[in-house]
Automatic annotation (TrEMBL):
Residues reported to bind substrate: R215, D333
Gene3D superfamilies in alphabetical order: alpha/beta hydrolase (3.40.50.1820)
Lineage: Bacteria, Pseudomonadati, Bacteroidota, Sphingobacteriia, Sphingobacteriales
Function: Transfers an acetyl group from acetyl-CoA to L-homoserine, forming acetyl-L-homoserine.
Organism of derivation: Pedobacter polaris
Entries under NCBIfam families matching the protein: homoserO_Ac_trn
Record-given protein name: Homoserine O-acetyltransferase
Coiled-coil boundaries: none
Key word Cell membrane present: no
Quaternary structure and interacting proteins, as annotated: Homodimer.
Annotated catalysed reactions: L-homoserine + acetyl-CoA = O-acetyl-L-homoserine + CoA
Recorded superkingdom: Bacteria
Record-level Gene Ontology MF annotations: homoserine O-acetyltransferase activity
């Protein structure tokens, strides 16, 4: 397995590391099966006696289980979600190369890495894996389930499974069904990867040139015209080549290639495409009506990948959901950047939720 976690239980500077080894065959939504499923996860803080302080974060496309690292400002020792008060859990998702079973893991049938023989999976499968881990950790009640982008898709699917009680659901820059626009972006990235002939060479480094291009394409959907105008504008007028924006695209592509692999990216982008809460249910609207958690939906006003209309749709169809929006020149990436704004919005929502809970308890006493 390609992993940065190699012990059953260990400590990192930022939390407890663990790997859950699922004892049974994991059946995917498409009917295919995964043997020897392993789920890497991290926990921060301690579960209190009432077991009512669990904060579960679902990570996005190329992130990992160290939520205190990639969502700084919202998760951290002095932040809204801190280990002093909360028991924070984040699990690495199926297909990712940060410790959970993925295309570079050993196929128990062949003894070799899966590569492109890895079975395709869906967002619903990612949510099912979270449920298995929660059961393993004896977590039956989650105070806050939160995710942004692909993480929000997982959180929404999990809330519909009803395997654990989810008190508060926070969905950031995400949707109920992945759009044709989003699928087109993902397919363009996969075309770039597949154009790299090394992608088919069954080598851990395969497809990296294509992955670099894919990341460059993705950045254009994560950011905005204004973000590039603010950060990549030239300071001189006499250039005819070597532009800052060009260097930036190259740098970001190379940066991802140093920490990720093309096979995981390929499969995870397909999982994002699969997201549709209406599949196998009466309809998308009917599925959203089944969400029972107190729900906060946050959109980013100039997000071109997950337009704010998608978050408004969620809020309009989830019973009693609250909706809020933020403006950020960085577009979709604002869900990782605007942590002060998110802290204010989420903090107020949780205070209101706690007050409503107290009022409800008093009425039933």
């Amino acid at each position: 397995m390609s992993t940065n976690i190699n012990r059953e239980n260990s400590k990192s500077l930022s939390g407890e590391l663990g790997i859950y080894k699922h004892p049974k065959i994991f059946k995917l939504e498409n009917g295919k099966k995964l043997r020897n499923l392993e789920i890497a996860y991290q926990t921060f803080g301690k579960l209190n006696e009432k077991k009512d302080n669990v904060i579960w974060a679902c990570h996005a496309l190329t992130a990992n289980a160290d939520v205190l690292d990639w969502w700084k400002g919202l998760f951290g020792n002095n932040d809204l979600f801190n280990p002093e008060e909360h028991f924070i859990i984040c699990a690495n998702i199926i297909g990712s190369n940060y410790g959970t079973t993925n295309p570079l893991s050993e196929n128990p049938v062949t003894g070799q890495p899966y590569y492109l023989s890895f079975p395709e999976f869906t967002i619903r499968d990612l949510a099912t894996a979270h449920q298995l881990l929660a059961t393993h950790l004896a977590i039956s009640n989650i105070k806050v389930l939160i995710g942004g982008s692909l993480g929000g898709q997982q959180a929404l699917e999990w809330s519909l499974a009803k395997t654990q009680t989810i008190e508060n659901l926070i969905l950031v820059a995400t949707n109920a069904v992945h759009s044709p626009w989003g699928i087109a972006f993902n397919e363009s990235q996969r075309l770039a990867i597949s154009a790299d002939r090394t992608f088919y060479a069954n080598n851990p480094q395969g497809g990296l040139k294509g992955l670099k291009v894919a990341r460059s394409i993705a950045l254009l959907s994560y950011r905005t015209y204004q973000a590039y105008a603010d950060t990549q504008i030239e300071s001189v007028n006499d250039k005819t080549t070597g532009y800052r924006a060009s260097s930036y695209q190259n740098y970001q592509g190379e940066k991802l290639c140093k920490r990720f692999n093309a096979y995981s990216y390929w499969y995870l982008s397909k999982a994002m495409d699969s997201h549709n809460v209406g599949r196998g249910r009466k309809s998308i609207v009917a599925a959203l009506a089944e969400v029972k958690a107190n729900t906060l939906v946050i959109g980013i006003e100039n997000d071109i990948l997950f337009p704010i209309s998608e978050q408004k749709f969620l809020a309009e169809n989830i019973t009693n959901a609250q909706f809020s929006s933020i403006n950020c020149a960085y577009g979709h990436d604002g869900f990782l950047i605007e942590t002060d704004k998110l802290t204010n919005i989420i903090g107020n929502f949780l205070k209101d939720s706690a007050n409503k809970k107290i009022i409800k308890l008093n009425r039933t006493a």
